[in-house]
Amino acid sequence: MNRQRDLVYCLGRIGRLFNMKLTYNRWIAVIWHTVVAILMMQACRFIYFYYNQSLLPPVDFLQLLRLQQGGFILDMVVIAYGLSLYYLLMIVGQFLPHRIEESKWFRVFRDLSYYIPFAFLLFLNISDTGYYPFVLRRANSDIFNEFQNKSMFSFYKEFVVDFWPLTLTFFILLCLGIVAYRWLRFRRADRRMMPVWANLLCSIALLVTVFFSMRGRWDFEGKPVPMSRVIPYMSDYRQLPILYNTPLALFGSKMSVRETFDFYTDQELAEIFSPYYQAMPLSPNDSLFGSMKGRNVVVILMESMASEYIGFYNPEYSESYSFTPFLDKLIPQTLYAKYGLSTGKRSVEAFPSIFVSLPSFGGTFNETEWTMNNYQHFSSYNTDLPTALSDNGYRLKFYHGDNEGALGFYPFLTRLTPMSQYTEESFMEEHAWSKEDRAETWGIHDMPFLSAAAEDMSTVQSQPFCSILFTLSNHHPYDVPKSLEAQYKNGTLPIHKTVQYADASLCRFFERIKDEPWYENTLFVLTADHTNLTDQPKYANTAGKAAVPIVFYDPQGKLKGCIDDYVVQHTDIFPTLLYLLGITDPILSYGHNIFDPDTEHIGLNFLSDQYILFAKEVTVLMTPTGEVTVEAPAPYLQTEPEKAHLPSEKTLERYKALLKAIVQDYNDRALHSKFAVEHLPVNPRKLPIQ
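Request: output the structure for the sequence above.
Response:
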């Protein structure tokens, strides 16, 4: 009996803690409800960090608290905007008759003005926590542009199930926030508890606080939410996703605005870097130049097929780890880059890099908005791979198993030069009876679509032709046709099953076309658009987030071997193809001919809001404000293990200068619409830095 009585007593004490408290002071209620919102936003930041800790730079507990301190500034920005209606109702309420402010409808409306934005802020932060492994940044407004033709509900429906711990976390935080809000409720007394002048003073103080919180600074100088306010809270710029919050990334001004730099004069810049390129023989006896003239070109862009999943690139792993038996056999028969690198973490960054030889540096080519941060609107660029091929008699066609115009890929390509397309609609017209071939979220599964693409390519009568194929099955939610699921083994990541399926689909494609009369006369380029989920320590570094296969396959066997003297990037594909095909049109290129020994071979990327240069000797990073840091090259992904250390200071300065020159040149062209070939220097080939 005593134990039962003690238990009832304890439960009663706990229950009384959650009993609603009343206050007749509206300003105490405002302060408490603001504190609740702050605590929940900070909790979201802790969750964001710990959920993605393996992908973020090392942060000790004290530094995490420091980031929370800086994050408070940014959290107050979105809280001030989000709860502005609630604050307004609390201020206006004091001037309304007692019966109106205390009426049920007014109190419900006031509560909803808090609950709805509060839930929205939590939802954005928690859902974005699961999105970070895919793009390695906070979600920004580009996501709405990239997926404009897709149902956001259909995406989140999959996330709710696949990332159920985060879904559960969201509801727990939401309930905690509502309970905390209701724990202290404001009730207006029959008579005023404070003098009118005191209420007016508090109202003015609240308005001033909200106004300056929205600006993220307590002065009228400079832009709102300035980068300079939060940089001191980071010990490493890659900690920005922890410091930031998703609502601000989505709806506020971007933290990384493209800036013009003046590191060098025009003359100095030209001596360090030139983006102009023209294919030409590399020596008097160069037999490789133009050796593929007239060949068909097939570019296969594989969704998320990172080097991490391909056994051939990871010989130190056990054979059971490989998920790509076909690629493991094909790549040794090709000319492949040992150190292949993508130029971003999104498909919309791969397309301009591969087909125009322009790194995106955080931009996108979607045309729904006109912003000065996205170079696609600077329509002055006039050199690209599709146009060069079209001008030389090639027929072009784009194959993608999604709907017409999905994610802006085809509109981007046709903006370069007119071409036909084969899409989900084309497939369903020919295979209307085949319902299982369609994945629920994206489009047609890779195996039936690539088989149909092979059939369609075989109907082409005239040569040469260029086919651009972009697969899609190897993408979240990682759907495999139900009838084939048992054929593929489970890996340590959900993507491992679709990697096997995508590899088998590619095998089926080559099996179908290998006996076609045009097959031997075709040059194939295989790569991945970007990396994806990772769990291997070897890839837990900056280069690992960009490691993709870059492969040139010649069925005649004229191109074969391994490029291991330097890194190779997406932007190298365009100038290299021009060299092999003997097309001497001058172009603007931030890539290199991979066969040119006199060029500074590098890789470019933009991760965690930093410009990145990869070389075999070093990784160089530069913040949007121009601060430069260096990292030792990643073993196996950039260089041999015994060479994975920082080079001499002279070499470091050389690569720092090169990255600064490239960014200065690129941003100047982006902001002044100068992506065009107007004239060529006497020697357009990029030379090593002296």
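Residues 104-135 form the longest helix (32 residues).
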